[in-house]
Specification:
Elements lengths: L1 E5 L10 H15 L3 E7 L7 E4 L2 E6 L9 H23 L4 E5 L4 H11 L3 E4 L4 H4 L7 H16 L2 E4 L2 H11 L6 E3 L14 H8 L8 E6 L8 H14 L2 E6 L5 H11 L5 E5 L3 H10 L2 E4 L8 H8 L4 E4 L4 H4 L7 E3 L4 H13 L1 H18 L2 H20 L11
Parallel strand pairs: 1-2, 1-5, 2-4, 5-6, 6-7, 7-8, 9-10, 9-12, 10-11, 12-13, 13-14
Antiparallel strand pairs: 3-4
Length: about 400
């Protein structure tokens, strides 16, 4: 089977969960025997064309038009992505199926679906209405919402990463429930990133003193991640435990959060670490006493999965897919969304009973090893492809292009 993946995030350009998902899914599908090609914008270096482990990647340059809003910028890149996809098909042979990731790929994927007359599968990683907590506050948000609807309508099947997201599609777009497949994200499990105990201690000392507990958060610094709730909870936490909060990542909310921390008088126990490489992220998971993700909106919560894969004790909000990834009291602690008091109580409890926190982390690691592996996720995705191809073979649509 030959599959074209259309994604706006692909290494070296990875911003969030979508990019990490596609980056891991593509080689895992190749490992299942699928011939995969990727078309993507060239947003952060990267070769215009490359082949790695049997996967062909074609990147296209984007227009230099900083005055555009983002949906218009995406639309201007659509034609270049279509040209790249047609060049790949001429070069490597006809694609059997198109797999589009999120609204950014909608116009390219739909145009190619009808041009090539092959089935389209879509993965919706998040929704604009969900990010807006049910609202669409701008014209750009409305345009994104419309493209999300169109992608779910045009796709033969729609993949989402959680049951929460499946319910959102039914609610927001009236997607038939029997058209939606829930396939979770996966994660790689690696060993300890430290050479020995001295290496661990020297790294930890970059962030906290020996007599301090470390609470760690990593991700995009945007409103829906709920970091303002965590800062509101921090004075109560700091009054009951000698702890330091390390926040890693960059984003539009960072200045507002620093101002909030200063106003709360907690800057001496909060550190904004900025961008960190994946290697340091994993070291921080191993060095921290607790990871925390207080999101207001989270379709899945791949960062929580990464914490679990690194055996780091975890506290999360019950936003979206987080409550599906973390089992309260078994693999972590789950608190109500946007509730600083409940968050403070859970963090304090985890810090005061490190034995129980570590036991939950060990249980989580066992679950990750059994369930959240990329070969398993690729196998489930391939099953969706096979279902779609079987349905396509039983229709007349695109029959003129089939090999008898």
């Amino acid at each position: 089977m030959r599959v074209l993946q259309i994604a706006w995030e692909y290494p070296p350009h990875i911003v969030g969960g979508l990019g990490r998902h596609v980056a891991e899914l593509v080689p895992a599908l190749a490992g299942q025997g699928v011939q995969v090609a990727v078309v993507a914008p060239r947003l952060r270096d990267g070769l215009h064309e490359e082949q790695n482990d049997g996967v062909t990647v074609r990147r296209v340059d984007v227009p230099d038009t900083p005055w555009m809003d983002y949906p218009t910028f995406v639309a201007q890149t659509t034609q270049a992505l279509q040209v790249a996809a047609n060049e790949l098909q001429a070069q490597e042979g006809r694609f059997d199926l198109i797999h589009a990731h999120d609204w950014l790929a909608t116009e390219t994927a739909v145009a190619l679906k009808h041009q090539w007359r092959v089935p389209l599968v879509a993965t919706i990683h998040a929704t604009e209405r969900g990010r807006g907590r049910g609202g669409l506050p701008s014209l750009a948000a409305q345009r994104i919402n419309d493209l999300e609807w169109r992608l779910t309508y045009e796709a033969w099947r729609v993949i989402v990463c959680s049951h929460f997201m499946a319910h959102q599609l039914v609610d927001y777009f009236q997607t038939p429930p029997d058209k939606v497949d829930v396939v979770p994200n996966g994660v790689h499990i690696s060993g300890t990133p430290f050479h020995d105990a001295d290496h661990w201690l020297s790294f930890r000392r970059r962030y906290v003193a020996d007599d301090e507990r470390m609470v760690f958060h990593v991700g995009r610094i945007v409103y829906e991640k709920g970091l303002h709730v965590l800062l509101d909870a921090w004075p109560a936490i700091a009054s009951k435990a000698k702890a330091h909060l390390v926040i890693a990542g960059m984003g539009e909310q960072i200045d507002a959060l620093k101002a909030q921390a200063a106003a709360l008088g907690i800057m001496d126990t909060v550190r904004f670490a900025g961008f960190i490489a994946n290697e340091d992220r994993d070291r921080l998971y191993h060095a921290a006493d607790l990871a925390i993700f207080p999101s207001l909106y989270e379709p899945f919560g791949i960062v929580a999965l990464e914490a679990l894969a690194n055996a780091c004790p975890l506290v999360v909000s019950d936003a979206g897919g987080l409550a599906e990834v973390v089992q309260h009291g078994i693999t972590g602690l789950v608190v109500p969304t946007d509730n600083p008091g409940a968050l403070a109580d859970a963090v304090t409890a985890a810090l005061n009973r490190p034995d129980m926190a570590r036991a939950r982390a060990a249980a989580a690691l066992r679950e990750v090893r059994d369930y959240y592996t990329w070969p398993r996720i690729a196998h489930a995705t391939l099953a969706v492809y096979q279902q779609v191809m079987a349905e396509w073979q039983n229709t007349d649509w695109g029959k003129e292009f089939r090999v008898s």
